[in-house]
Amino acid sequence: MKMMKKTITLLLITIAIYSCKNAEKKEGKKTLSNTEQVAQAAGFDNWDAIKEVKFTFSVGKMGRNLYDRNWTWNRHTGDVTLIASPDTVHYNRRQPMDSIQTSADRAFVNDIYWLLPEFKFITDSGTKIVEKSNAVAPISKDTLDMFTIVYSNDGGYTPGDAYDVYYDKKHNLREWVYRQQNDTTIGMMTTFEKFDTINGIKVATDHRTPDRMTRIHLTNIEFNK
């Protein structure tokens, strides 16, 4: 009888220990939001290892290139270099800027958003996100999941702006709509095309308007460790 009691007690202790460990595993596993899953699909886990970013942001219209901006950004120091022929601008994002540097930084914020929107969705502060399943995308007319990200009216170069973002089942971005000041009127909408993976970071290198006459193109991309 004593042996049976000891066996039962040991069994109960073993079950209790297993249950505790199982509960710890469940608690330790974080459920990612859709925006976090979008960022993960683009390689956000590799972002911390990246020290320097280089890329060229180009805008074209009707097959003709309108302008290029060439960027070099040191994430650790905050140093930025813009080369936009015939001008070159150097500045540090953590230091006071003059009017020319501020103008360059406005362009940088815009261009880096085109390069890495998936990361900006989860790292930018002062945002509100509303999610919706099975929405009809405005360009392709495909049924996709989507979320709307709205920026607060405080701070930043474009406060109050909103983006409607459409993504597929693999959490890859497919289309987005920009709405100035969260207005119902669409400011611009483009596709996400020609994905390329550089050093573990996935980027859509080509964006087209619905008529495919306007093109946002990203080239010479480097993510250096």
Automatic annotation (TrEMBL):
Superkingdom in the source lineage: Bacteria
PROSITE patterns: PROKAR_LIPOPROTEIN
Protein name: Selenophosphate synthetase
Organism encoding this protein: Nonlabens ulvanivorans
